[in-house]
Amino acid sequence: MSTINWMDEVLKRKEDFIKDLQGLLQIKSVLDEENATEEAPLGKGIKEALQYMLDLGEKDGFTSKNVGNLAGHLEMGQGSELVGVLGHVDVVPEGDGWSVDPYSGIIKDGKIYARGSSDDKGPTIAAYYAMKIVKELGLPLNKRVRLIIGTDEESNWRCVDHYFEHEEMPTTGFVPDADFPIIFAEKGITDYDVVQPIQTIDDTASKKLVSFQSGLRYNMVPDFAEAKINVQHDATDLIQGYLAYLNEVKLEGNANVENGVVVLNLVGKSAHGAEPSKGKNAGTYLAHYLQQLELDNAGKQYVTTVAEFHDKSRGEVFGVEYEDEESGHLTINVGVMSYSNESLGRIGINMRYPVTFDIEEGKKKIETYLETKGLQLENFSDGKPTYVKKDDPLIKTLQKVYEEQTGDEAYLLAIGGGTYSRALDHGVAFGAMFPGREDVMHQKDEYAIVDDLLKATAIYAQAVYELAK
Questions:
Q1: Which of these three, 363, 383, 403, is where a domain ends?
Q2: C-alpha distances out from residue 200 to 274, 294, 312, Å
Q3: What is the count of structural domains for the chain?
Q4: Catalytic status, residue 153
Q5: Which of 259, 30, 44 has the alpha carbon at shortest distance from 155?
Q6: 20, 60, 75, 90: which is the annotated catalytic residue?
Q7: I need a surface site. Which of 160, 304, 309, 450 has the fewest CB within 10 A?
Q8: For 290-345, what is each residue's pLDDT tens digit?
Q9: What is the 3 state secondary structure string of 95-109?
Q10: Which position among 153, 179, 223, 446 bears the catalytic label?
């Protein structure tokens, strides 16, 4: 069986592959809870995309199952053990600025353009065709193989949560929704709030912080911040000092007076919360300036707390710096900041920790630090890291397959992001983006290179066979 030319088998089905992929891409499967029904709990488009995959599988002779209209699977093979392949058919909103119809699946210069082409409809169809090839070749399998289809990966993972409440956990598996060669480790991800209780405002202060706002999401470096300050006397010095600061840090911003209140804003640079040092956090930059002012006690405490994190993203503030060989540094992103002198101050933090980090010990250190400052920890949520040992049979099998199909080294990657492999007891993320390719996921004019998808299909076909034979 080792003489199978997997790429040849893919190319025999290229025309059908493209047609089936275009059919899926043409469905606008964006979360739509406003128009949700029992039959379509996440919206009509998402249900349509799920049904499209189940119908495709039934037509090709797979055993199909719809699991609560939130997920589904297509199965082949036999045996007590189960190999799982987890893809998703929901997409983020298309946004503006496309040069083509975002739901056309048009092919230009070897690229197929559509929302979801690279994340994750293209790779999901590649995994489907991989199973189809193994099935049509009639290869003997000693395990069952399931393509598990998720519908809420871009939001709250209600799909896989519901699925694994009702269906069995695969023995092993992979997720075609990331990068090649192999992602063997994903950091733990926690979100939490640092809360400053309501305090009595110091009326003797000449400058009072009225409000402070920055950031929309915990896992993004905020690119805009705004503060409003009530100044009893002339605000000229404050405004000039702030404009000089903007010039010093080489960032855009503005300062003006509205209804007797000084409004300062600052434009930073956004980045993913997994690596905050790649951005310029507008909130911490603004707080860094404000902490030097003679503000009221509550306002001063808030901006001083935020400013502690300025240019520090490795856990230094809480004393939880940590790094391991498997997955790198612990990172902290200050993603959402809000303060009003009529309510409490809040700082929303996204922390990603290495696979060997003791999160319970880390949480205690954070709480101890906050207690000394009169602050509180709230809304602590923890997504555990996922990690498969480098010498695990799953890793070794996928390395062998990748190297045989590409001729390149199958080195191992650790990431701060999160894939469906977290939903598996034993699994890794495996493609479908090849090294050196432009990452256009979630961007306008998202595309996938057709030849890359076909190559990924050959890799997945051999991987399915090797894992299930």
A1: 383
A2: 37, 17, 30
A3: 2
A4: yes
A5: 30
A6: 90
A7: 304
A8: 999 999 999 999 999 999 999 999 999 999 999 999 899 999 999 999 999 888 89
A9: CCCCCCCCCCCEEEC
A10: 153
